[in-house]
Amino acid sequence: MEIIDQHVKGIMEGCKRRARDAGLSFEDESLEYIVTNRDMIELSPKVMIPTLYDYWVHDVRVISGKGMYELYPNNPYETVINTRPPISFYNDNNPDWLNVMIFYHVLAHIDFFQNNLFFKHTWDYDFTGQALADKRLIAKYRSEHGRWVDYIIEFARGIDNIVGYHDQVSKSVSPDEKRILGKLDYYFDIFLQKEKKVSQNEYLKEITRYNQIGSKEDGEKHVVQENDYFIDVRIKYPEFDAFYKRYIEKKEDIRIDVMQYLMRYSSFLEKDENKWIKTVMEIVRNTSIFFQPQIRTKIMNEGWASIWHEMLFMKDDRIRGHEVDFAKVNAGVTAMPKVGLNPYALGMRLFYHIADMEDRGCYSWDYINTHDELKRKKYNSSVKYSSSEGIYSKKGFDRIFSLRENLCDFTFINSYIDQEFMNKHKLFVSGKRLNKERMTWQYYIKSRKAEAYKEMLIDTLYHPPIITVNHEKTAQGPLYLVHKFEGKPLKVDYIENTMIGLEYLWGRSVRLETSEPSASKDTSHQRFVNYWNPPAPAAPASSQAKQEPQAIVWKRVLYVMENRKLIKREIN
Fold it and tell me: Are residues 262 and 140 part of one domain?
């Protein structure tokens, strides 16, 4: 691995100038390295961070990657990581024209990293420098505690997918906001409704009284002074101030994830000889939070990079004579498969579609209320563009730049995939069935509706389970975890090993409340089809036996881990 030479660096600096002129925004400094395919294999398990802490699973994946490379040789073009400055890696046999294309792709990635709000918590420090310090600290602990360091890393990584990433983002976007309601909002939203549980009639009377205080005799409105309003409130409810003070004191403590809870409340980790464990857990947690936005913005990020490498490359005079070569490479990267998902292709086409719709004024009530398909196609079609050259009006560009700043994959897909997009690219949801005569799998078109396509895409997105600690039940001794059921059960294969680690870190037994399927013949009140045990074929008319279809009943169960033994029982 070595830094690129001055000739290639000059190409990169030229790409930076053109990218900034087109509207992309990123810092001046960047580091570019030339690597071999073997280097890529060794860096991949560490998510391309050379300074990440050592862990035995990384070594296993390197060995596995080398074996796969022997069977299926491949030539990755580039990889870029979100650090300060950003670091990118390039294959050692790329020609100059290909580097021009790749540099534009990388610069668009960097623009996304440094402007999308889901990455905001990563903007203020250099992760590679922090990772190096963490690596040295873990090496020091290994010299003192041996293999126990790897056990702790493994236990912590078992729950590092349920860290409080969104709370971290919220603090970064609104650092001064403590999520504490003002006195007036607390009075109407919590005190009257939850603490005093007043009747609906009395609640509406109180709202009317507040509105009357805010109205002058001439009908104009004025701002109600809280102190004046609460004079009467305190006469009626003298305990109000005490309730509000207690609410403020409790508010800061309510939103912590499982790993934070262990580090804060585990009596086992409070012992002097075990305090080093907290440091290792904090390193694993911070590493997970750093990488969370990348997996949550994969489609947007790759689509954004693809749209810009296409638009900027086609305008660059340095690629003359290599248009056909570019077309072949670009088609391989951004081809839209009929079955499966290519995030490069989907994200790029959706950005183009949004810019086109914005330019034509299609995000308006007039267009939405136009139901004639021909009129919708011709709607405001006087604005002409060429997607290969990326000629859009400022209005269309402003829209996609705003989306690049504020959305993640879920909101991007859920908000902007519509029937027009489906029809334009002839997309569909495919199904799979077994041909019993030929004993082969057949693919068929299951649906062409946008809602079905969105549902299919959303099912492929990263969505870890929501597991929280029940503080009241945990106060009795065992750690009591509650899985918020969202229609999908936990992976049973991982429950035992994860709970063994939690039991060790907590120092006592652990409980996990979750939902699991149970077959039932009574289908009258069920919403889910039993896709694990589908209904048997209907019996012939002459047959006396009737086979009833089965459905899934989701039952709450409790897993108990005590002394490294797992027990499961149903919750009535």
Answer: yes
